[in-house]
Design a protein that fits this description.
2 helices; rod-shaped; mainly alpha
Length: 73
């Protein structure tokens, strides 16, 4: 299991999360490995959510800026 760089992209984090999920779906994992994968999955899920929230705020800010710069009718 690899630790991820906190500045990594959403796509990279999401791909790692999908990999963790697919490994967890394998019923043959030892308990300790399953727990470690679960912890990694939770961390990646939180990271993805933070990246998405940051992107949402950026888009919202840009939209508000465009509305404020639009000429009045």
């Amino acid at each position: 299991m690899t630790k991820t760089d906190p500045t990594q992209s959403f796509e990279s984090s999401f791909a790692q999360l999908q990999d963790v999920i697919s490994k967890l779906e394998n019923a043959d994992l030892p308990l300790e490995e399953a727990i470690k994968l679960y912890e990694e999955g939770k961390r990646l899920s939180k990271l993805c959510a933070q990246i998405l929230e940051s992107a949402r705020l950026r888009v919202s800010t840009l939209s508000e800026t465009e509305l404020n710069e639009s000429p009045a009718d």
